[in-house]
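Hi P.,

Sorry for the delay on this. The queue was packed all week, but I finally got your sequence through. Input first:
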Amino acid sequence: MNKKIFGGLFSGGILLALAGYSVAADMILSAPPRESVDAGEKLYAPLAKHVSELIGATVIYQHPGNWLNYQRNMRSDKYDIIFDDPHFISWRIAHIKNDVLVKLSGTMKFYLVANKSDETIHSLNNLVGQTICAIPSPDISSLTVLEKFPNPARQPVIYGVNGGMEKVYKAFSSGKCKASVLGAVFFENKLKQQQREKFKILFQSKPLPNRGITVSQRLSAKDKNIILQSLSLGVGVKANNTVINHYSEKMHKSFVPATNSEYSGYNMLLEGIIFGW
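Then the structure:
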């Protein structure tokens, strides 16, 4: 073979290999598929861009597409940086050695409500075999309620509603279900008093540690500390206000530092209810 041709092929092969390595080396930031692809990009791409600048590596936001992909990719440790709920955070800490860096301030809590005018529903026992409007499992809102029904034969049926608490509320208000799971932030801050007065609360969950950001073992201790400091104290507070405002209804100004220990045990909301976790 002509030496020039061979040299060109060899050099091209190296460039292709390096290009492939660069793509493969990109770090992936993800979050649950509650939003559409476009909405997810608006929410999380600024966070990915900011972390890229912090640690000098390319971090891309990747929408998982659906819950099945999200679960599979999470369990196979595909994601490097994730913003999501305490049960997922707890599972990753316990099983794939992720570390939680920061969280939204405050706690998460959920209400299971029914209409006051419904004389057939007075307690959890009345919901056996009935339909409940909620964001579908494995979202923590529905799992906190299913935990109260340990016998699978006596569980209510979750009428899955994607798109956030507003859509869950609308589905329930239109008569799709006998009860509904609503987040406390939505219930207490988004609904007017006259709307809340139409409900009876059948169950309220204990406060849970809030949503947070975990990172994989592929990030160094130095990078973890840089991210923690920036998102809780530095310029990252302003850079990521899209996520903070979206999930805290503008009540909180920044992420706050978090520790692995405060999420201990919440993985059982997954492992104790959903087969395969």
